[in-house]
Amino acid sequence: MSIPDLYQLSDLFSTDQIARRSRLRWFIDDQVLHHANRWFQEGHFPLEQAQALADYNVFGATLKGYDCPGMSYIDYGLMMQEIERGDSGLRSFASVQSALAMYPIHAFGSEEQKEKWLPKMAKGELIGCFSLTEPDHGSDPGGLTTVAVEDGDSFIINGKKRWCTSATIADVCILFAKLNDRIQGFLIEKGTPGFNPVEITNKFSLRISVSAEISLEDCRIPKANILTDAKGLKSALSCLNQARYSIAWGVIGAAFDCFEEALKYAKQRIQFEKPIASFQLVQKQFADMWTEIVSAQLLALRLGELMDEGKADPAAISMAKRNNVRMAMEVARQCRDILGAVGILDDYHVMRHLTNLESVFTYEGTDHIHTLILGEKLTGLRAFG
Ligand code: TGC
Question: Is there a contact between 234 and 384 (Cβ–Cβ < 8 Å)?
Fold first, then answer.
């Protein structure tokens, strides 16, 4: 029995959107979910399956021109939801490619840079990454200490970066450094001497995803590789808006997969001679979870409309990221509880989603930072900085 669409959300999507979602759902079921727990245990990133997402127009989905799909933010959000139903690490790859690598090239790059990178990135032939965070500057990126200095027709960059998804496999890195004391974006191409990404392998979370730290040692790049219009922290934060939007939708998919798995289990698991789904406390868990999942979908949908109209306030994006990640974590925890002891095994997906969501709770702005962004918006008073 499928879960009833009580709020008739399907009516809010076009036939095309539903068809696209079904195609991607089939791909995630067939090519990702069957293998995901093994990949997670092995710490394996499935590059081939990740690149195949290009066939569904995932990469740079909302960007116009340069062979990009030019779709709506709701189209994009629905795809993020389906991908994270598979795994948060795979969705991280897809949203970094779109929101943090292609978006800044599209928004801040020169015509030559756009022509060179975007068509191939949209096809998944080239991979991008984004590098803002440093070992000593996470929530306060304005304090970053990586420095670029001009030297003839080059810039020389020195510093250290951390938590860059895809950095060891990326063809291009969008990197923020200080140039004359002001934050500035640059493009660094794979293989540039002095650009040294190293994979972080000792993770308990997002194991189907490459995370890396990068050391930059006299890394010389041509002047043409400056992202001219990516000036100031504002430009980096505007990329994060895109990535936070992807998360607000994506985590609904993770919650959905946990919910479906727990519901199936609860109907089959017999205790006291009855399926545990018939017990009142378990029914309360399902009622609470489904209410929160549907509420998160409505929040994401309205945010998508605002993004399409170019009217989304960054604080609204913070609200959706914060609320929907909290929701997904709570759903994953409740589903693990319903599964009982077997919920910790890799025969089920719940524990993988739960440990992944621990990272999603923290990256692209911690829960605390989004709380304080909302606090400032509501009170007019700043609690940080
Ligand atoms: P603040 O003075 O508030 O702002 C500086 C300028 O930026 C503007 N601004 C924004 N613009 C667009 N979108 C937003 N969301 C914006 N938030 C602020 C602001 O209006 C101002 O503009 P202007 O014209 O006055 O210059 O800056 P602050 O330094 O006080 O910091 C504010 C704070 C704490 C909210 C911000 O720094 C923040 O969001 N911190 C969290 C950082 C974060 O999310 N980091 C994660 C980075 S992602 C990553 O590197 C690892 S994950 C990526 C991967 O998976 O590879």
Answer: no
Asked if 199 is an active-site residue, the reply is no
Is 0.90 topped by the overall pTM?
Answer: yes
Q: Which atom of ligand 1 is nearest to the CA of 92?
A: 55
165 lines ligand 1 (CB under 6 A): yes
385 lines ligand 1 (CB under 6 A): yes
Q: Which domains does the chain have, with CATH numbers?
A: 9-127 (1.10.540.10), 129-232 (2.40.110.10), 234-379 (1.20.140.10)
Cα–Cα distances (Å) from 338 to 15, 34, 53, 135, 276, in that order, read: 35, 22, 33, 38, 8
Q: How far apart are CA 50 and CA 377, in angstroms?
A: 37
pLDDT tens sequence for the chain (385 residues): 689 999 999 999 999 999 999 999 999 999 999 999 999 999 999 999 999 999 999 999 999 999 999 999 999 999 999 999 999 999 999 999 999 999 999 999 999 999 999 999 999 999 999 999 999 999 999 999 999 999 999 999 999 999 999 999 999 999 999 999 999 999 999 999 999 999 999 999 999 999 999 999 999 999 999 999 999 999 999 999 999 999 999 999 999 999 999 999 999 999 999 999 999 999 999 999 999 999 999 999 999 999 999 999 999 999 999 999 999 999 999 999 999 999 999 999 999 999 999 999 999 999 999 999 999 999 999 998 7
Is 243 within 8 Å of 92 (Cβ atoms)? no
Select which of 134, 213, 364, 376 is catalytic: 364
Our answer on whether the CB atom of 362 is closer than 6 Å to any ligand 1 atom is no
